[in-house]
Write a structure and sequence with these properties.
The chain is of the alpha+beta class. It has 2 domains: about 120 residues, Ribosomal protein L10, N-terminal RNA-binding domain (Alpha-Beta Plaits, 2-Layer Sandwich); about 45 residues. It has a 5-stranded antiparallel β-sheet, covered by helices on one side. A hairpin with a 2-residue loop joins strand 4 and strand 5. It is elongated and about 135 Å long. The protein starts with 7 loop residues before the first helix and ends with a helix.
Length: about 210
């Protein structure tokens, strides 16, 4: 006996069934991927909003042209300094900054940007970005914000030079100690002068 003959329309029916199955599978997969992407985007927006709510200052800098090795160095410097540094899509960054004290940055978020936030010291992020830019001109400062006020990019130097908390306390103590020291010397001087006078009189009497 020869091979069983399959009618053409039966063969096409099987092919059609397989195609429909594959299309359905792809549709479900796409929906799952889309759902996952939406959740990831929501997480990023929430993360940026949380960081912005606690941050003291923020810097946005263009990083186009920076190679992976240099970007890794920048990230490591940021980590050691304790600042938040991340490349975030501008659309997501705008959503995350909406309603925060960094809302003023939203209109300026264009092009490939990274965000850096100072959480503990106001000048930390500015210092990390400025110092890196000194040796890598591909990192260009675009936005600088201090306590809700949008500054000029050139103001990053002044912001980076702000003293840390410990430095500020040390400077304050120096200012406080200087007048106190002078006051103590003023109060002590009359007594010291009296002691010197009595000593001189005693010496004169012994000489006589």
């Amino acid at each position: 006996m020869g091979k069983e003959w399959v009618r053409p329309h039966g063969r096409w029916k099987k092919i059609t069934t397989i195609v429909i199955f594959l299309l359905c599978t792809l549709t479900v997969t796409e929906e799952l991927v889309l759902s996952k992407n939406i959740e990831q985007k929501k997480a990023i927006v929430s993360e940026v909003a949380d960081v912005a709510a606690k941050a003291l200052t923020a810097i946005a800098a263009e990083y186009s042209g920076i190679n992976v090795a240099d970007m890794t160095k920048l990230r490591e410097s940021a980590r050691q300094a304790g600042i938040y540094l991340k490349v975030v899509r501008n659309t997501l960054a705008r959503r995350g900054l909406e309603g925060t004290k960094f809302d003023c940055m939203r209109e300026g978020l264009t092009g490939p940007l990274l965000l850096a936030f100072s959480n503990n010291e106001p000048g930390t992020a500015a210092k990390v970005i400025r110092d890196f830019a000194k040796t890598n001109d591909k990192l260009v400062v675009k936005l600088v914000v201090l306590d809700g006020k949008l500054l000029a990019p050139a103001d990053i130097d002044a912001l980076a030079d702000l003293p840390s908390y410990d430095e500020a306390i040390s400077m304050l103590m120096g200012v406080i100690k200087a007048p106190i020291g002078k006051l103590v010397r003023t109060l002590v001087e009359p007594h010291a002068k009296l002691v010197r006078t009595l000593a001189a009189v005693a010496d004169q009497k012994r000489a006589a």
